[in-house]
């Protein structure tokens, strides 16, 4: 069930492990090192934005957190367990960039199946039905519940995929570019939903985007570029540290600084190709 | 220090998740009535065609018809499963499922169950049509024909699942049919008895599972009781299906690069 406000998932006496803790995290894909010795912490109960240009390693990092990425070295703990631990599978909701749903099933049938995987058994049927109905309402697809996913628009299919991740009781939601291709009204509604989920369900959200204006809506930011973390702080702290007005300007300043530093330190350092 | 998670316990089959998966696969099929019609009707139409191609020699129809009753479910299930699991891999739903508490065995058993159910319908119709309407002369019990047909369907499902791991697109997946099925078709004894082939080919056909599928059908055709050869054939086909299913399970990776 949902976490009710004032009912955290763990006793307050023991400080819970952060949602994600990485130290010296490196990921190799083929001949390339996609993530270089990353270290960062994602606090619980907040929205952390993972921002950076396409191909900077956001998706790879998210796959590592979810436990679907191979060749991960270093420390990566998720909800107090090593990433990919079997017990984490029902505690994390994950939305890939491309909608991963069955096009030849209706919206409701898609959700019913994934709900049955998360919470199987005849005894749970009523609870599953509630979760499915709530998830469809969360993403504002109630009027399309009986439409085939394949007949929906791209943005609608992405929302079906998001609804799947909202099923059950995810303590951590990993959302890879969930607002791509959505109109401004829907984007606003989804961000309101994300804040609602963090505030009332006590969940942690790790949301990637390459649209910098979405950064302003996050509690914390992880700015990435070419497999490195450039910044790990709140939007306000980032703006004041860099003396800029917007996160976008702050990001550009950090990129310029990093490029200048690399040029002087390691002129032969090869650049990273897009990762996905 | 490595974060590689401990190997997931290959959880024993979870009945509820397996049936949920099978129900989902069948629901997907139900939204595609044309595929259902093709799967069910094409074998029947082929049998009718064959019956009148061999209008003058009913003995030939008996032999080829019985063999085909075993081959049809294998080919259909091979094609359907390889495309379905390939779609599952390319659409991202497989990655999503494996990031969820779903055992690989649940997924595979779910597919086997769903396509097994379709295979029962397909084989029952084709066998019934051949025996009662087209005059296929079977000495043994038609139920044994059905049993072999079902095992063949399972073998087809297993092979399809396995090769889908090596296909990057649906084009490639379809091309695996001539690569995997046709040699078996040529060597299984359908066209000429296996003992009449070049000794090297006879040896090759000895290790191909379809040979035993066809042999099992012929045992039912010619013998009124379950012969030792029939039992051997059935066990070999079932064993191959389970072996290939296990290999197919090994191609499902929770972590990919």
In short:
The complex is a heterodimer of chains A (276) and B (257). Chain A is of the alpha/beta class.
List strands and helices in order, with pairings.
The complex is a heterodimer of chains A (276) and B (257).
Chain A: E1 20-29, E2 32-42, E3 47-51, H1 58-66, E4 72-78, E5 81-82, E6 92-95, H2 107-118, H3 125-138, H4 154-166, E7 172-176, H5 184-200, E8 204-209, E9 220-225, E10 228-233, H6 235-242, H7 247-265
Parallel strand pairs in A: 3-8, 3-9, 6-7, 7-8
Antiparallel strand pairs in A: 1-2, 1-4, 4-5, 9-10
Chain B: H1 15-30, H2 33-53, H3 58-90, H4 93-98, H5 104-133, H6 142-164, H7 170-187, H8 199-206, H9 209-222, H10 228-250
What features would you highlight for this structure?
heterodimer, A: alpha/beta, Rossmann fold, six-stranded mixed beta sheet, four-stranded antiparallel beta sheet, 33% helix, disordered N terminus, disordered C terminus, B: 257 residues, transmembrane helix (chain B)
Characterization of the model:
The complex is a heterodimer of chains A (276) and B (257). Helices cover 33% and strands 22% of the residues of chain A. Chain A is α/β, with parallel strands linked by helices and 276 residues long. Chain A has a domain at 45-56 and 91-265: P-loop containing nucleotide triphosphate hydrolases (Rossmann fold, 3-Layer(aba) Sandwich). In chain A, α2 (107-118) packs across α3, α3 (125-138) packs across α4 (154-166) and α6 (235-242) packs across α7 (247-265). Chain A is globular. Chain B has 257 residues and is mostly helical. Chain B has one domain. Helices cover 75% and strands 0% of the residues of chain B. Chain B is built from ten helices and no strands. Chains A and B meet through β1, β4 and α2 of A and α1 and α4 of B.
